[in-house]
Records
---
Amino acid sequence: MGATFVVTLREAFEAALVLGIVYTYLDKIGGRAYYRYATAGGALGLLASIAAGVAVSFLSGPLLDLGPDVVSAVVVFAAVILLTWHGWWMRQHARSIKGDVQRRIDQARLTRRLWIIGLIAFTGVFREGAETILFLWGLLTQATSSVAGIAGGALGVATAALLGWAIFRGGRRLSLPRFFTVTSAILLFVSAGLFSTGVGQLQGLGVLPQSQALWDTSVLLSDRSLVGAFLSGLLGYRARPSALEVGAYVTYVAVAGLLFFGNVLVPARQRSEPRPDVARP
């Protein structure tokens, strides 16, 4: 539940942020008449995300014929790769999103191609919605309770919507850089837990050698208990981890932590130097 809450909070907030930038900028330049393009684009993006979720559900049926454990391992590693890339990209380009959206709106008005405003809203919502589906698919394959996982996801979306509304209705006290830094740190450990789980699954499939548990804290806190399952999903807690699982967890935190937060080690003077914008693929 904790992991799905953080993932949907982060992704839904990013979608709300893009929509908020579009509405705020249109209001600033006297373009409220163009709101309908943004609203239509955002609604279509939401519908397309739901359709993508339905498609993934249908596709998962035939894939399970390959073997649930094999499919689960593939999904877990795919989610780790996507989460890592997403975390790195946001840390690199989060500050340029606002300016990029505003430049595209100006271009749409100058060329009278107002449908571009709708396209900006559509891509902002659909991109985050599609990523959320893939992330949740990976997390729910590891969840001890699908109901709790879905409830955490719904709570995350509701919280993100509330935060987005508060920011663009006057409550601008939330520091966006701090929000993305904190959620990136949490997602780092969520991804590390997924990576460690994937390594454990490969051990179970015989792809990697078996090893004894390094410790056993199941008496104190079982990872099947309510608190243990919460910590398992959020931080990758294991009551009886193998040496390979622990090694995978530590290695991921070290490598991905450098990718996410390595720029902190760069002197402030170098970080402030201008660099060319990079369009998000």
---
Amino acid sequence: MIRRLVLDVLKPHKPSVVEVSEALSHLDGVEGVNIIINEIDQQVENAKVILAGIALDFAEIQAKLEEFGATIHSVDEVAAGKRIVEEVKTPQDSSARM
């Protein structure tokens, strides 16, 4: 069962992030939605969409986003299981970014 998803999403300006977040929050299994706009272009917005819940249905979330004309560019994080395991920093993380 998926408990958290972090998605890189490209969406049109309309509907607004308020409308999209409200619609996503009403899906079964979704307990919280956070949408952060990273970039605004003339026609579209690039957004980080973070969803949390007990049992997220990726197909249903993708279908709802597509209903609003949005596309998922990438799935940047998935947390599944009985509890969410947070990312931890390791020495390799800083040396890999040099």
---
Amino acid sequence: MDLFSAMEVSSSGLYAQRVRMNVISMNLANAQTTRTVEGGPYRRRDVVFASGGLHQNARNPVFPYIPAPEAFKEALRTALGGNEVRKVEVVDIVEDPRDPKLVYDPSHPDANRDGYVMMPNINTIEEMVNLMAATRNYEANVTAINAAKTMAQRTLALGQ
């Protein structure tokens, strides 16, 4: 794994966490939405992640791929327990299958005959915890990119 691979892995993490934060924000914004275009209350959404393979410098023709020495690859593979270095990918955004909450509010315009309103299946505390986790993951990826950038700068400084 070279510096560009490390940056590619971290940038995929940044993108995935940004998508996750956007979905969480959408869930929090619609925590009280009782009417949607599809009908019924808003349904909570969640992001599905998967691991994906690295495409070494596929988007950067300026820096062609320079393979790492086999000894380094083997040491890295051993350190990772035989697994390859993989990046994260956003596979899908799915709706939560949990049922909507029934809240007794006979004065609400969407209340049924018994006075119950179907509210979104969103727990704001759960969403805030997920948002904090996504924020921490985003910060960790930024730190990793900065570390890789610092290593590249110091490597260039050695040649001066």
---
Amino acid sequence: MTALRLALGLTVALGLGVSAVAAADKPDPVADAKAFQAFFVKKFPKVAFDDFVNGPYSMNEDMRRQWEEKEQFPPYEFALEAGKEMFSKPFKNGKTYADCFPNGGIGIRQTYPAFDATEGKVITLELALNRCREANGEQPYSYVKDEMASLTAYMAYTSRGKRFDIKIPDDPRALQAYENGKEYFYTRRGQLNFSCASCHVQSPGERIRAEILAPALGILNAMPIYRSEWSGMGTISRRFVTCNSQTRAVPLEPQSDEYRNLEYYLSYVSNGLPVSGPGARP
């Protein structure tokens, strides 16, 4: 066992109360998800399970009141309208996004990311949308700009209320992708020496400057999100890149294997929580 793996196992054990030896030596995503969810439920006994998808608004009553008022005229509404129009508009060859996805792309957000057995890698919804565009002769969209956020906002909206149902097939490559995502989540990096878990497992509910940190449980269920800080919409890719920048680490390329595996891990341990996207955050 490498020093990194040992350190990782200890971090997981300290954070989630599970056996370091068991976590490091025998990967068990089902047990991981159970321990992960139990940790947050115990840490925040007043937060209803489904409410974890509302991030900081589940942690602070004042922020929640402001958010509920804002939701009467949600700031992401423009993206929903744009995404719906983009989704139904035919490509130059006459086909649409609906031709690329099961159920015509409606109500499927809760099944992404998924593991592709042919490719042996994790496929996110953002990646699948761009592959759909390229397969139909269209240029791919930026993973961090408005078009991708609008498309995923509309697709998330059609899945609202459906519970995350991420699968890890009986394939060692899928299990390794999940383990790699888990390792990325708990590994410290950057000048601030923070891991993803430093903020979203150890410190949810606490403030960094004016921002209340969201719990890792359910953090992707609200994606994409409108952020006042951005004055616009952002994708999961944009959030990962921003988090790396905020810890003064070198951000990876959007949709790199590392980010896709991270999304796979974070989504899997939130199985059972409902899709709430698109969301809004300060």
